[in-house]
């Protein structure tokens, strides 16, 4: 990809924008790799812009909570059971150390496999450490009474500040939604600023993002520990995802979904309409 940039004479700032804001790379390692993947990402971005108009992204009305609800409805159609507000007391293992079921109170739900996020596996089970601590994420959830300045009064925004422009090792992400998405009251805007923690002053690390927001009505800061699985899960049928990182575009989440599907089924995930649905 480096030769492509050189061929078109693109300066560093433009390279940062293309690589991080359009191709959504987390670092600059892609520059020294073949250009095909980066070009495909850029084409996807431009095609999405052409299709949806002012933004290449789509966002669910009523917020991200609609995604698990959609999963629950689809799961029910295909015979699945969705259990709300059930505490997980124990991951039950067999004598061979493989997954047997999940216990909640006096009830145990049995299955061949379990897929879960790291929060369920922080304690050692059967002497095995299933997740390890990784990096930390600092997030600021900010309530605004105005759109983000200099965005054309947009009702939703994603801003990625490339690491090189703020002399960091990680990008800073800014995402904003509003009443247009039915997630807050009219004339209120919700902005989230996040990045990977690099120092012992995490709030200071997101100042470049906070400075873009203008006057902040209310601000909530949190620092979250990230976890990742220690194994693929194929030996005990326990498949653990990675913690949500600092990104606001969910590319890493999609990658993680593909990864855990491949680990659990041994096959690549192919997303397409089922023949029955297509016929209808």
UniProtKB/TrEMBL annotation:
GO terms for cellular component: cytoplasm. GO terms for molecular function: Rab GDP-dissociation inhibitor activity. GO terms for biological process: protein transport; small GTPase-mediated signal transduction; vesicle-mediated transport. InterPro entries: FAD/NAD-bd_sf (IPR036188), GDP_dissociation_inhibitor (IPR018203), RabGDI (IPR000806). Belongs to the Rab GDI family. This is Rab GDP dissociation inhibitor. It comes from Thanatephorus cucumeris (strain AG1-IB / isolate 7/3/14). The lineage of its organism: Eukaryota, Fungi, Dikarya, Basidiomycota, Agaricomycotina.
């Amino acid at each position: 990809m480096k030769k492509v940039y050189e061929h078109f004479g693109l300066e560093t700032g433009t390279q940062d924008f293309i690589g991080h804001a359009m191709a959504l790379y987390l670092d600059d390692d892609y520059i020294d790799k073949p250009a095909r993947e980066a070009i495909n990402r850029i084409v996807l971005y431009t095609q999405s812009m052409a299709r949806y108009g002012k933004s290449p992204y789509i966002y669910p009305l009523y917020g991200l909570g609609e995604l698990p609800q959609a999963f629950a409805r689809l799961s029910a159609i295909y015979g699945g059971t969705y259990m709300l507000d059930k505490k997980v007391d124990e991951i039950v293992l067999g004598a061979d150390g493989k997954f047997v079921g999940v216990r909640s109170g006096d009830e145990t739900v049995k299955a061949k496999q379990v897929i879960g996020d790291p929060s369920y596996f922080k304690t050692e089970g059967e002497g095995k450490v299933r997740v390890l601590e990784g990096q930390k994420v600092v997030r600021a959830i900010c309530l605004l009474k105005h759109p983000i300045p200099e965005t054309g009064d947009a009702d939703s925004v994603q801003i990625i500040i490339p690491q090189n422009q703020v002399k960091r090792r990680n990008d800073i992400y800014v995402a904003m939604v509003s009443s247009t998405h039915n997630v807050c009251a009219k004339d209120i805007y919700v902005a989230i600023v996040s990045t990977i923690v690099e120092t012992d002053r995490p709030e200071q690390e997101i100042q470049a993002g906070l400075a873009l927001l203008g006057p902040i009505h209310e601000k909530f800061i949190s620092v979250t520990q990230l976890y990742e699985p220690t194994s693929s899960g194929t030996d005990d049928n326990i498949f653990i995802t990675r913690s949500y990182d600092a990104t606001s575009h969910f590319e890493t989440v999609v990658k993680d979904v593909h990864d855990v599907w491949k680990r659990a089924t041994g096959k690549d995930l192919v997303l397409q309409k089922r023949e029955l649905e297509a016929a209808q």
